[in-house]
Amino acid sequence: MESKIHKTGEQDRFIYNFNDDPSQVVMETIGMKVYYGDELAMHNDDIQFKKNNITSLIGPSGSGKSTYLRSLNRMNDDVARVTGKILYQGVDINQPGIDVYEVRRKIGMVFQRPNPFAKSIYDNITFALKRRGLTDKKKLDEIVETTLKQAAVWDQVKDSLHKSALYLSGGQAQRVCIARALAVKPEVLLLDEPASALDPVSTVQLEQTLRELKKDYTIIIVTHNMQQAARLSDYTVFFNMGEAIEYNETRKVFTRPKVQLTEDYVSGNFG
Asked: Is the pTM of this model over 0.85?
C-alpha cells in the first residue's frame, strides 16, 4: 500500500491504494472530473476498488456519492460530462467507441428507487437474457430461482412469478431489481441506497446476501447509514463537496480516521 496525507487547496486527504498488488484492482478512476454544464461537480477522485470486496461511499447529502457511483458505468452520460479515466480490468471505459451496453452488463446498477419493468417478476429477471438469445426454459427457470434467492426474496414471490412486478411492495420490488441485475452475471455491482425501502428484517437479509455475493462480485454501495457501512463494508470512501476526502479500510475510517473532516463526520460533529 502506498498512501499518504496530502493537501488539495486547504483540505487534507488520505487515499488508500493497492499499488503493491495491482492484480487485486478491478476498477479504478484516475483524474476523473464530473461537470454539470460548466459547473465542476466532482474532482480529486482517484480511487481503486479491490476485487471481491464491498466498498461503501459515505458523506453528507450533495457530497457527490451518487454522482460518482453513476459515472462508474456511464449512467451519467446524458446528464453530465465526465473526463479522466474510468478503468475496468485495465480498459478505459470512458473513452469514445466503448460499447456502453456491454459496460453496463459487466457493471450492474441497482438504484435507490425500485424500478421494476411493467412485466411479470419472471420476465423482469429474464428480459435481458432473452434479448441476448437465451431461450432454454429450464436454464431460465434456474436463473430466476437462483437470483431471487440471492436477493432474499424467493420465498415471498415464488408463487407469484407470473404476476406483475409493479404490485410488489417497495422492499420486494427492490430485491427483484437486485435479482434482475444479477441475472446477467456482472462482475461489479453498484448499489445506490439499496436498503432505503426495506424494513429492518429485510435489510439484515440483504446485508447477509451482499456478504455472500462478494465471493463472486465486487460491490460498491452508496449509503447514508453509517452503521450499515461500518458493519457491511471492507473499505469506505468519505466524500465531501464533490471530493473524496478519505479512503481506507472501514474499521480505520470509523475508529482511527486520518483526516479531521472524516473524524467530524463519523463522530456526528459535522456541519
From this structure: yes
Query: Are 182 and 105 spatial neighbours (Cβ–Cβ below 8 Å)?
Result: no
Contacts of 189 (CB under 8 A, 6+ apart): 107, 108, 110, 181, 182, 213, 217, 218, 219, 220
User: Which of 247, 265, 220 has its CA nearest to residue 13?
Assistant: 247
Print burial letters for 199-224: b (CB count within 10 Å at least 16), e (below 16). Answer: eeebbebbbebbeebbeebbbbbbbe
By CB neighbour count within 10 A (0-12 exposed, 13-18 middle, 19+ buried), where does 246 fall? buried
The C-alpha atoms of residue 173 and residue 63 are separated, in whole angstroms, by 27
Encode pLDDT of 1-56 as tens digits.
444 544 444 568 899 888 878 888 999 999 999 999 999 999 888 999 999 999 99
Which of 111, 236, 227 has its CA nearest to residue 180? Answer: 111
Distance CA 47, CA 239 (A): 12
C-alpha span between 259 and 257 (Å, rounded): 6
Residue 17 burial by Cβ neighbours in a 10 Å radius (0-12, 13-18, 19+): middle
Res 175 pLDDT > 60: yes
Task: List, for residues 195-225, the tens digit of each pLDDT value.
Answer: 887 778 878 888 888 898 898 899 999 998 9
Rg (CA), the chain: 19
